[in-house]
Amino acid sequence: MNSPTRAASGAGNTRDHRWQALIVVCLGVLMIVLDSTVVNVALPSIRDDLGFSDAALAWVVNAYLLTFGGFMLLGGRLGDLFGHRRLFLIGIVLFTLASLACGLARSQAFLVTARAVQGFGGAVVTAVALSLIMMLFTQTAERAKAMGVYSFVCAGGGSIGVLLGGLLTSALSWHWIFLINIPIGAVVFLLSRKLLPAEHKAPDTRELDVAGAVTVTLSLMLAVYAIVNGNEVGWLAARTLGMLAVAAVLLGAFLRIESRVRVPLMPLHLFASRNVSTANVVGVLWAAGMFSWFFLSALYMQLVLGYGPMQVGLAFLPANLIMAAFSLGLSAKLVMRFGIRVPLAVGLGLAAAGLLLFSQAPVNGEFASHVLPGMLLLGLGAGMAFNPLLLAAMSDVRPDESGLASGVVNTAFMMGGALGLAVLASLASARTGALLSLGADRLVALNDGYRIAFLVGAGFAVLAAILGALLLRPARTPTPETGVPDSHAA
After folding, report:
1. CB atoms within 10 A of CB 70
2. How far is CA 370 from the centre of its chain?
3. How many angstroms separate the most distant Cα atoms in the chain?
4. Which class for 268: exposed (0-12), middle (13-18), buried (19 or more C-beta within 10 A)?
5. How far apart are CA 125 and CA 268, in angstroms?
6. Phi then psi for 480, rounded to 5 degrees?
7. DSSP 400
8. For residues 223 and 247, is the Cβ–Cβ distance under 8 A?
């Protein structure tokens, strides 16, 4: 991996165009972020067109999340071995081609497979994007500004995604939420070849923990598949229990591999830090609630309230704009004033309150009374808690492991989202199916299923808030001279 000094002293052309290069990196990341939210608005249209069941529909999201989270750490390691620019370009090409395949999909299996490839490409791009920014900006002040732009793109991309998804689905069809990536990917690829630094210093060892990446990804895929299909084949059926058992064995194998391999994908010594361990557990719980909110609230608004795709996109806009505003500095100010524990706990508490409000939304709900309040609370909560969570995950690690720690918490976040979505979507489907079998009205049954899922999601957020408040130690902030974390009382 290039050192900051080496990257900084590269070709003068690179330094002259650092901010343009940052825009290119952020545009590539924006395309990835868009795809995480743009799909939610189009889910009902995809379900009707390709004949997905409500539980199986979650795989359109989960196939992406699982490969994204499962291969993010491997993507970062590949960048260290073969060059971050090269891996960024490969990731963009994979993601763009997979987007084309998604847009042309005419069957469930084809779409889900293409979404899995999209997730892999997105993981590679995301894993090396931060490393590229660290190479481009070596001075603390400039790096802070660059990271602020990157954070804004990550948060603001959500609001663009839901609006774009609503517009494209309403005006054209759901296929275009994927096809729109083709011209963007082509532009990013061409500009990346011109602007991104090509220098690369290979590490001393080229060992690659492929076994670790394969075992942890297969473990989580099997677990999610067993949960998603538990309603159909039975929770105590041999097939369900067998898959869960194999998933547990694979997870154990992954941990054993990581404890023995010379260059592990996820060094277990990181979790000796209480902050790192707590932040990852909090990230899993919070993501379980947040991803389910995106997925289930979109279905509630379309299937129960009868909103069109564009209306759903506009409904998400307040929450996403609030999250974007916090990423531009409000969250950092709160952390400097109160430390990490208070903003994290309060933010997660607000998110839990927003999920509770959604659980009370009736069949004949109105936007101003039953949708907007929950959206505002979830936007405030997520915007307030995201920065403290990342700081907690990296506050106790060595400077040379900060990128790895960031990758670990991002992986935990994606995996928590995938598993949480599988569990809550299955709970909602089971409740709806039970009520329908008793002769309940379809809208009432759907709404009650979503209500149960929102309640459980709120429970996840409350538990995350409690753990963060009780277990996190005072944060550490970067020193002006080095940008390396130093002690800071909360």
Report:
1. 26
2. 26
3. 72
4. exposed
5. 24
6. -60, -30
7. G
8. yes
Per the CB < 8 A criterion, the answer to whether 291 and 65 are in contact is yes
3-class state of residue 444 by DSSP: helix
Contacts of 411-414 with C-beta under 8 Å, sequence gap 24+, read 411/69, 411/70, 411/72, 411/73, 411/266, 412/69, 412/280, 412/281, 412/283, 412/284, 412/287, 413/69, 413/283, 413/284, 413/286, 413/287, 414/65, 414/66, 414/68, 414/69, 414/72, 414/287
In terms of DSSP H, where are the helices of 340-471? 341-359, 372-394, 402-437, 442-471
Q: How far is CA 443 from each of CA 58, 168, 371, 447, rounded to the nearest angstrom?
A: 20, 26, 17, 6
**SS3 state of residue 476:** strand
- Rounded Cα gap, residues 401 and 418, in angstroms: 26
462/50 Cα distance (integer angstroms) = 37
pLDDT at 400: 54
Q: What is the helix (H) or strand (E) element at residue 478, kind and residue range? A: strand 476-478
Q: What are the average pLDDT values for consecutive 10-residue runs of the chain, which has 490 residues?
A: 40 61 86 78 82 78 76 74 83 93 88 90 83 72 68 68 74 84 90 77 65 83 75 78 92 90 79 84 88 82 84 82 75 77 91 93 90 91 81 68 67 77 83 89 91 93 92 58 36
Which H or E run contains 188? helix 181-195
The torsion region of residue 439 among left (phi > 0), alpha (psi -120 to 50) and beta comes to: left
